[in-house]
């Protein structure tokens, strides 16, 4: 089995090599190209999905960090913190809240797809 990519021939060859290993190893090239010599959508998805997950995770972390926290240090030790914990979200804060939920759902779905195709 070879450890080096044979050379910069095309993006398609790079995807096939990354997912299948050495081009002349047994089983190489199976289910990677269709009859029109194009990379199948599954191979493309397997190659792109890790980068999509990295992007979604960075966006999700940023969205969580940008949200306002209503809990103070005293809330961790059992003191009454109800006066500052509840408020109505309006404007950008509401949009950021819904965007965080959507990013979390997209990240969970991408992880599920990654589990199913690998």
Describe the structure.
It is a single chain. This protein has 118 residues and is mainly alpha-helical. The chain has five helices and no strands. The chain folds into two domains: 1-39, no CATH class; 48-117, no CATH class. 59% of the residues lie in helices and 0% in strands. The radius of gyration is 23 Å and the shape is elongated.
Index terms:
single chain; about 120 residues; mainly alpha; 2 domains
- Our estimate of the beta-strand percent is under 5%
Large-scale geometry: elongated
Report the end-to-end length measured between terminal Cα atoms. 21 Å
Number of helical stretches of at least 4 residues: 5
Tell me the structural class. mainly alpha
Instruction: Tell how many strands the DSSP assignment holds.
Output: 0
| H and E order | HHHHH
- What is the makeup of the main sheet? none
Radius of gyration: 23 Å
Classify the helix fraction into a percent range.
55-70%
Q: Number of folding domains?
A: 2
Report the average pLDDT across residues.
74
Low-confidence stretches: 26-30
Summarize the structure.
The chain has 118 residues and is mainly alpha-helical. It is built from five helices and no strands.
Topology record:
Elements: H1 11-20, H2 41-66, H3 73-76, H4 82-85, H5 92-117
Helix pairs in contact: 1-2, 2-5
